[in-house]
Amino acid sequence: MVSFQYFVASSLDGFIATDDDNLAWLLQFDGFEGGQDSYDAFLADVGCIVMGGETYAWLLEHEPGTWPYPDTPCWVFTHHEHSAPKGANVTFVRGAVREFVDDLKDEAAGRNIWVVGGGVLAAQFADAGLLDELILSVIPVVLGGGKQLLPMTGPTPPLELAASRTMGRGIVELRYRFPGRS
Question: Which residues form the Bacterial bifunctional deaminase-reductase C-terminal domain (predicted)?
Answer without folding.
Answer: 6-172
